């Protein structure tokens, strides 16, 4: 089993803690393999929550042996990190452990230098404060979450769940991630590369576009083209491309390619079909095109992806 530790810092955020608990600590007897999770603190073990609530968790002097460390929140007004907290988090990281943060937890990762040469995300309301304090860190306003397999961070609220689902998908595959998402009544996948919020109300065209993209997700696969999606939206291809880029920050072609790659990855994980058949079922012209896009977007070949996933399953 993969060991997870949820680390509470000086400031408790009940929602982000709830996200971490639901994602990683909830027993899931339907799975043959899952996380084993504990919640600890290195400081005070008494926390005040909203609505006159109180929360307690075990206090430790050293972090337990863990594969994944989750930081639900960290005080954004706190400019220093205690020596105990800093040394334990860095020890975990330098020993090969992974770390993800939700919302304000990115302030701790940045303060420890763990976001240097990486992409940073936090809740939009803290963005200017974050950029002013950590000008050397590459901050992205147009992302919900970011995860490189070692370090991850997210915006607040639902984006924390999106990041957690992405981690589950990497650890256990699409079937597990989809099951967890369904239980939480959420989409199975939401790209990290989306804006956190919209500054003006969406007009009728944008709302229609969102509905059409929901249709496209359900009908992704062989035969689906950008022209068909544009027609479904009652737009010319040129207008559709312009509206799509404005709303989703990527081109329709890239979006459709990512959906096809998702289908291919699911088939590589869950079937023994030949690569040529998987290419056809995912909507690629042939295996050559599938391999090209795997290399371009995922930096790995389909065969190597299948082999790596099977190795993870065998050793999990």
What does this structure look like?
The chain is globular, with a radius of gyration of 21 Å. It has 13 helices and ten strands. It folds into two domains: 2-183, Rossmann fold (3-Layer(aba) Sandwich), CATH 3.40.50.880; 200-316, Homeodomain-like (Arc Repressor Mutant, subunit A), CATH 1.10.10. It is 47% helix and 12% strand. The chain has a six-stranded mixed beta sheet with strand order 2-1-5-6-10-9, with helices on both faces. It has a two-stranded antiparallel sheet with strand order 3-4. A two-stranded parallel sheet has the order 7-8. GO terms for molecular function: DNA-binding transcription factor activity; sequence-specific DNA binding. Pfam families: DJ-1_PfpI, HTH_18. This is Transcriptional regulator. Residues 210-308 form the HTH araC/xylS-type domain.
Name the features.
two-stranded antiparallel sheet; six-stranded mixed sheet; 2 domains; globular; 316 residues; Rossmann fold; Arc Repressor Mutant, subunit A; alpha/beta
In CATH terms, the superfamily of the largest domain is Class I glutamine amidotransferase (GATase) domain
Q: What is the C-level CATH assignment of the largest domain?
A: Alpha Beta
Strand content: 5-15%
Fraction of helical residues: 40-55%
Helical element count? 13
Going across the biggest sheet, name each strand in turn: 2-1-5-6-10-9
Mean pLDDT: 85
Content-based structural category? alpha/beta
Number of strands: 10
Global morphology: globular
* Rg, Cα atoms, Å: 21 Å
CATH fold topology of the largest domain: Rossmann fold
CATH architecture of the largest domain: 3-Layer(aba) Sandwich
| Largest sheet, strands/sense/barrel | 6 strands, mixed
Order of helices and strands: EHEEEEHEHEHEEEHHHHHHHHH
Distance between the termini: 6 Å
